[in-house]
Design brief:
Structural class: alpha/beta
Number of strands: 5
Strand order of the largest sheet: 1-2-3-4-5
Order of helices and strands: EEHEHEHE
Helix content: 25-40%
Length: 102
């Protein structure tokens, strides 16, 4: 998974590219942890994400919970239809805040 950061002060946007899977998860988890500590509002721009496997689902949930615990906000944006189907099947449609999804 390739990750780029757009820093907007108290808000950060992570531009994600690739699959959220076990292979990418350790490095991605470190970045997500750092970003949850750094920003009050974190946006995960998933326009470039082609698939989310179970480690990616766990990471989305833990990031959501970490932001919620600190009183911050997590937004998941630009989710493709196939990835949204996976998130819906996993029960994430009621858990996460989505914007600009297909």
């Amino acid at each position: 998974m390739d990750i780029s950061l757009v820093d907007r002060g108290r808000e950060g946007e992570l531009l994600l590219q690739g699959s959220m899977d076990a292979k990418s998860e350790p490095g991605t988890e470190r970045i997500f942890d750092e970003m949850t500590r750094r920003y009050d509002h974190l946006i995960l721009n998933m326009a470039g994400v082609d698939y989310v496997f179970s480690p990616g689902l766990r990471l989305l949930k833990s990031t959501h919970l970490a932001m919620q615990k600190k009183g911050g906000e997590l937004t998941v944006a630009y989710v493709s239809k196939p990835v949204m189907e996976v998130l819906e099947l996993a029960g994430f449609s009621g858990l996460l805040h989505f914007e600009h999804s297909s």
